[in-house]
Amino acid sequence: MAAVQWRSRGRNYEAELHRCRSEAVPVEFGDYHPLKPIMVTDTKTRRGARKGSTSSSSSSSSSAAPDPLSSMLDGTDPLSMFAAASATETPAMSHSASLGDMGRKRREKEAEEAVGIDFEPWAAKRGEILARFTTTEKLSINLFSGSDRGKAPSPGSSAVSEKVRTRLEELDDLEEGSQRELLNLSQQDYANRIEELNQSLKEAWASDQKVKALKIVIQCSKLLSDTSVIQFYPSKFVLITDILDTFGRLVYDRIWTMCSDPRPLPDLFTVDEVNDTAKETCLNWFFKIASIRELLPRLYVEAAILKCNRFLNKTGIQETLPRLTAMIRGIGDPLVAAYTRAYLCRVGMEVAPNLKDSLNRNFFDLLGSFRQISGESVQNQLVLQRVEVPEYLTLYSPAINWILQCIAYRAPEPLLVEMTGRCKKLGNNALLLNSVMRAFRPEFVAARAMDFIGMIKDCDEAGFPKHLLFGSLGRSLACADPPESERLTILNEAWKVITKVRSPRDYVNCAEIWVEFTCRHFTKREVNTVLTDIIKHMTPDRAFEDAYPQLQSVIRKILTYFNDFSVLFSMERFLPFLDMFQKDSVRVEVCRSIMEVFIKHQLESTKDPVILNAMLHICKTMHDSVNALTLEDEKRSLSLLIIGFIRMVCFGRDFEQQLSFCVEARATFCNLEPVLVQLIHTVNQLAMETRRVMRGSHSRKTAAFVRACAAYSFITIPSLSSIFSRLSLYLQSGQVALANLCLSQADAFLKAAVSILPEVPRSISVEGKLRSSESFLLDFINNFLSTLLVVPDHPEHGVLYLVRGLLNMVQDYTWEDNSDAKVRVYASALPLLAAMSQETYLYSIPKVDSNETLYGGDPKFLSEINKLCETLIGQILDQLKALSRDEQSTRRQGALAFSLFGVLLAHGDLRNNKLSQLAVNLWNLSHKHGYCDTRISVRTLEYIKHQSLQHDMAHMSDTLQRLALQSRT
Asked: Bridge partners of 770?
């Protein structure tokens, strides 16, 4: 293809804009409008109509055109048809419906009596008990060693008498010593052995060895009578009752399955729906359990299958619970008896939560057994195991708490009065009082907070520590508000006791609870006093190092109630409190939580020096935690929090103070690149705000200020590691400098951007995957080219020196193989050069003299533009020629040819015959192999035809006649 002389088409941008505006066409709306409500025909049937009579229908419709959806329904709504059909069937179903209503009412009543989601289940307490009650003492366990007789009988031995005799012998085998004792087990070994027994139970049941399964359950129940390692007893209770629960579930499911023939038994079944075989099997299980000789395993195992009474009679559970409750009185050890009652209450709440009398009787029996604690046998046991009375009393807390939770569930307020009265009769038993406060609704406790404080004062300190009682009271007051007149007195009375606690661990556990009450009802003065006391107790011997979770909880509670950071940071002891977090990870986590609350609740910008200094300190703490091992996600998270703070800092019209803050922040957060990027954006925004205030006419002072902003950005950008961040910021800062009439600074930014183009790698990591950087680079260059239109040439560097410099860098850049990116940049530069040759530019910056003013249409300037355009076109044509040698590149050749054709059509003067012929050749080349999109080609021809109708574009019709659509054969 021969070289061509370039001539840019003259443009009148205002006239073109006027022609492109769409004409306003008045729209006349008839009666129908798509947003107008549509009246749907509704057919109603009288319920009292005789069978076979026609239904009366009432219909209404709008005067609008018929709805196409309604027209398909033949005037009848299918939903109304179903309703009408069901109405006709109603009389025939009246009898069955009445029976269904009775069943539904019964189910609703049972559902009301059931336990709701507001009841904390036993499973939620299990993990806490296992973690709290541990021991280092060695434990022992008796393991069942099964014999061959425990296996299921063979099909041949099916005689009933033989089967019964065999099972009786197996049951007696347990009494004959078929067990082995394992000694010196650690706590974990003990738990593992219990789990083995649980698995053995399931395996025995699955293999139809029901007697063996019963033996395992009996043996495990016997373990609950062993209090040789008394500190571990609550955890032992949790582990073994898991096996009992499994056994009870297996037995119940077995019997329920027997009732499912021929149809499944519903969940809410009646005794009449249970067949005789299931009843006989169920009764057999209860007889087996009744034959257990020892009281404790007989109690536990029968309680485990208590639910099975539903298969026998309606009142079975109601009659069994009082009997089992009375049997527990025969257990001599008060701790064992307490947990047996807790298990019975747990099972009772699952199967019959409405039977409150049994719960109350268990609790009152428990109160009566407290006298045994001071008895000789218990005291001797405590001396033998070297356990103090306060520690021993805490072993009761899970059992008492559970029993009281069951009693207090949906209980009326008078019951709390009764319970507190019984506490007083028992001499204010502290353990019981603690459980009462934790079990009943916080609203009930808060209303009588002063009464509880009085009872706490009367309690014996040696039996149960008072700070634990105040802790329980504080938990209730954190959820419910006491009378306003009593709040200060409550806080003073509580803190008198809390501040005297000597153990830092006990102190901080209690103080952490009462911080919420203080924040909820008092001002920063009282909270500051509490913080002072906490610092005083936790600083000696660095006790705070063992209490980081509690101290973090204190911070969270303060942040929950104090969202005004001017008030928060005005507390004298808040920042010293933060200084107690010496561990790096914990300190950063606390600072992060503060920043998250700040960003969430600080809705207005601030310049308060108290807030700024404190937040800078917190942000610097987060920043200084960053090192070479910090993950990128962590860096990104910290950066976002710091950026959120920077965006909230505003000094109003004091722009110099804002710039000083950015200078300080740059030095403080130099290791977090996203923060530096945000600071550069902030300074650029500051310069543009200055321009807005001065309305584009800078004074000497403001001109110096915006130059200082440009200097800030120019110094900061090179410290960024991301090449695309640097390129983007150089360009943006150059545009800001240009808008503020800082021409030399703008020139420096743009030159710096051009100079680092060779550093752009061929591939970059995007979301952990390597991707070609070509598309990012092309986007930047196109943006850069659009900026160069308004940038005046430097008087010492010649015509179009920035354009030439950019194109030289593009020429020298190492592009990917088989890539047309370089020539596409050349094609993108042609519209810029064409725009530069116009008498009036498409856009400009106020008070900045662009090249249109500097050169004023000088022929030499236009000649330089045309020469550069010809050179670029020559480069593109050479690339097209090179692509023609490779049959695999025909699609690329066609796309590139069509792209250049579009540039010539929009910006070239096609009155030049050579340029017009080149356009026709490019059109033909792009369609030669049929890869060009026909729809785009058709629209292009329509555009040319439309343009040819303009008086100054008549020559386009000649070009149009020479363009033809070609299809791929």
From this structure: 765
In this structure, the strands spanning 139-144 and 769-772 are unpaired
Query: Cβ atoms within 10 A of the Cβ of 722, count?
Result: 13
Q: What is the pLDDT of residue 461?
A: 65
Q: Are 577 and 535 in contact (CB under 8 A)?
A: yes
Residue 360 in tokens:
């109350």
Q: What is the pTM of this model?
A: 0.73
| N-terminal to C-terminal alpha carbon distance within the chain | 25
| Residue 379 CA: distances (Å) to CA of 374, 409, 600, 686 | 7, 34, 57, 78
pLDDT at residue 62 tops 50: no
pLDDT of residue 35: 63
Sequence-distant (6+) residues with CB within 8 A of 762 are 772, 773, 774, 814, 815, 816
DSSP, collapsed to helix, strand or coil, labels residue 606 as strand
Give pLDDT, residue 490. Answer: 94
| Spatial separation of the C-alpha atoms in residues 896 and 178, rounded to whole Å | 92
Residue ranges of E strands in 324-472:
none
Q: Which two tokens stand for residue 501?
A: 């606690």
Q: Which residue has the higher pLDDT, 373 or 536?
A: 536
Kindly tell me if the per-residue pLDDT of 964 is higher than 90: no
Q: How is residue 556 written in tokens?
A: 């969270």
Query: Which ranges constitute the DSSP H helices of 562-650?
Result: 565-568, 574-578, 584-601, 609-624, 632-647
Which one, of 816, 810, 823, 806, lies nearest residue 773 by Cα?
A: 816
- Please give the mean pLDDT across all residues of the chain: 84
Give the SS3 label for residue 715. helix
Round to whole Å and give the CA distance between 342 and 349. Answer: 11
Q: Which residues contact 201 (CB under 8 A, 6 or more apart)?
A: 213, 216, 217, 243, 246, 247, 250
Q: What are phi and psi of 962, to 5 degrees?
A: -95, -5
Burial track 176-215 (b if 16+ CB lie within 10 A, e otherwise) = eebbeeeeebebeebbebbeebbebbeebbeeebbbbbbb
Give me the pLDDT at residue 810, please.
92
- For 803-836, b where at least 16 C-beta lie within 10 A, e where not — what string? bebbbebbeeeeeeeeebbbbbbbbbbbbbbbbb
Q: Which of 868, 735, 890 is nearest to 806 (CA)?
A: 868
Consecutive H or E run containing 763: strand 763-766
Distances (CA, A) of 742 to 685, 686, 848, 855, 862: 15, 15, 10, 20, 27
Percent of the chain at pLDDT exceeding 90: 47
Give the pLDDT confidence score for residue 140 in this predicted structure. 75
Pairwise CA distance, residues 172 & 178, whole Å: 10
**Residues with Cβ within 8 Å of residue 610, at least 6 apart in sequence:** 566, 569, 570
The larger pLDDT score, comparing residue 12 to residue 85, is at 12
Amino acid at 86: S
The two three-digit tokens of residue 735, written as one number: 């545009």
Q: Are 267 and 307 in contact (CB under 8 A)?
A: no
**Eight-class DSSP state of 569:** T
pLDDT at 449 over 80: yes
Tokens of 211: 């007697």
Alpha carbon distance 347, 307 (integer Å) = 8
Q: What is the largest CA-CA distance in the chain?
A: 124
Q: How far apart are CA 834 and CA 907, in angstroms?
A: 6
Q: Are 467 and 433 within 8 A, CB to CB?
A: no
* DSSP notation for 174-193: GGGT-EEEEEEE-HHHHHHH
CA 719 to chain centre: 35
Closest CA to 661 of 644, 647, 673, 641: 647
In this predicted structure, the answer to whether residue 97 has a pLDDT above a threshold of 70 is no
Separation of alpha carbons 360 and 532, rounded Å? 45
Residue 470's closest CA among 454, 486, 447, 488? 454
Q: What is the rounded CA–CA span in Å between residue 732 and residue 718?
A: 14
- Is cis: bond before 262, omega within 30 of 0? yes
